[in-house]
Design brief:
Strand content: 25-35%
Helix content: 25-40%
CATH architecture of the largest domain: 3-Layer(aba) Sandwich
Strand order of the largest sheet: 18-20-21-16-15-19
Radius of gyration: 33 Å
Number of strands: 21
Structural class: alpha+beta
Oligomer: single chain
CATH class of the largest domain: Alpha Beta
Shape: globular
Mean pLDDT: 81
């Protein structure tokens, strides 16, 4: 009898043990070490930097991991026990084949503004001294408009003298020329010179910063708010890689003379007493480098707007929030190398290039040259072997008066029947309408010219 009870007890223990194991297996979350390759988790599902995300998970934790956004360290804790799923990624790679590790980056073609590579390009970050690209842009606009001259003497205020960070230790008793100020700002990122120039142009740094924000808005820099003209960390002083590329492009395309300063590697001021060495190391060791501006603080980390031109292809690479100075330069190189290796610039039109003749009716002249209104070209992959054809249309029924710049035709560029672009043709001279008054004036003008000869 005892033997039968013993057998029954053993059977019952086995049955209850099986049920318990099955139930436990259905409720305990899956665990995977940080180094494991999770099923269904691709390298494209990496997560955003510098964030720890803690969520309750259930038995479907692997699916939850795959739903998390890029480049973050993830720690998920089960509500039923202490088992975790931890996934760590050092190099975000979603839409990032170059495996950039910075906070954000972009590569654009300088002339057209075409985006060739985008990695978090609208992420709002602290720009540090790359802020000075906008400061330099406004200085160059003032120079080109005649508001100031390179030889103008710029004083140093107490405010400018008090600036920290990168500087050349301006003294309130000295004055430097605009030329010298630009050199100090572009080469060694001098904060004191930056503030002195801001005050010289607008009377105060605050008024100058208002101009900076107005210009940013005009350029479509929608991710940007400037709080100062130098880039020292300040709450709310933010921009993005894309916006930095926009203002860098504006500076380089509208004011190419700036490269006289941004390509200096070593120079001096104050009769050789103050040595300058460019903070942008690419100026010295990257072929075709044309600038542009570095920036770094302990909060912003390491930023760079780097520009270069090779074989008529001009590129701008922006790196923001690189972990080290070496990383920002290395990743800017990666972007520029990627652009030069994979793309080419094909010029299709040159401004004022004569395309044909336009017949003019009722004018003192019966024809005029039809010229391209602007320079135009396309950015094409180097692997692209397409033939580009152009179709010229010059208007037939054009009557005087004709004014310089008036549209008198257009050229359409196509490839395989698809329209790539259309560029206007314009008149390059004024032609008056035929009449008694104009004819009389022309006759007297011609006679006077003959008499002078």
């Amino acid at each position: 009898m005892k033997g039968k009870f013993l057998i029954i007890n053993i059977v019952l223990i086995i049955i209850f043990s099986s049920i318990f194991v099955c139930y436990a297996n259905s409720t305990v979350p899956v665990w995977a070490p940080a180094s494991s390759n999770l099923v269904g988790y691709s390298s494209q599902n990496t997560v955003s930097n510098s964030t720890n995300i803690t969520n309750e998970v259930n038995a479907n934790v692997l699916n939850a991991v795959n739903e998390v956004s890029n480049s973050t360290n993830i720690t998920e804790e089960s509500s039923s026990n202490l088992n975790n799923v931890v996934v760590q990624t050092n190099a975000p790679v979603q839409d990032n084949p170059l495996k950039l590790t910075c906070g954000g980056a972009v590569l654009i073609e300088q002339n057209s503004g075409t985006v060739l590579y985008d990695y978090n390009m609208h992420e709002k970050l602290r720009p540090a001294s790359v802020t000075k690209v906008m400061t330099i842009l406004l200085i160059m606009e003032a120079l080109d408009s005649g508001k100031i001259a390179l030889t103008d003497k710029v004083p140093c205020s107490e405010n400018a003298n008090s600036m920290g960070g990168s500087q050349i230790w301006l003294d309130t008793r000295e004055e430097l020329t605009v030329d010298e100020m630009l050199k100090a700002i572009c080469v060694v990122s001098a904060n004191d010179c930056t503030v002195a120039m801001a005050e010289f142009l607008e009377g105060s740094e605050e008024a100058f910063v208002m101009k900076m924000n107005e210009k940013a808005k005009a350029l479509g820099m929608n991710d940007t708010t400037f709080k100062n003209c130098h880039g020292i960390d300040e709450d709310g002083h933010l921009t993005s890689p894309y916006d930095i590329a926009l203002m860098s492009r504006e500076l380089l395309t509208k004011h190419p003379a700036i490269t006289k300063y941004t390509t200096i590697y070593m120079d001096s001021l104050r009769d050789g007493k103050s040595q300058l060495v460019n903070t942008n190391k690419l100026v010295r060791n990257y072929e075709g480098c044309t600038g542009l501006k570095t920036g770094s603080t302990s909060v912003a980390l390491f930023n760079l707007s780097a520009s270069a031109t090779r074989n008529d292809l001009s590129l701008i690479a922006v790196i923001m929030k690189g972990e080290t100075s070496a990383i920002r330069f290395a990743e800017a190189r990666k972007l520029l190398d990627y652009g030069f290796s994979n793309y080419q610039y094909k010029a299709l039109a040159s401004k004022n290039e004569v395309v044909g003749m336009c017949n003019v009716g009722k004018g003192l002249k019966n024809s005029t040259e039809a010229v391209f209104k602007e320079d135009f070209g396309l950015i094409l992959p180097k692997s692209n072997s397409q033939n580009i054809e152009q179709t010229v249309e010059i208007y037939n029924n054009v009557s005087a008066p004709i004014t310089t710049g008036q549209k008198i035709g257009e050229v359409t560029f196509t490839s395989d029947g698809k329209i790539l672009a259309t560029v206007d043709l314009i008149a390059n001279e004024d032609i008056e309408k035929y009449g008694i008054g104009t004819m009389t004036r022309k006759i007297f003008t011609d006679w006077f010219s003959m008499l002078r000869v």
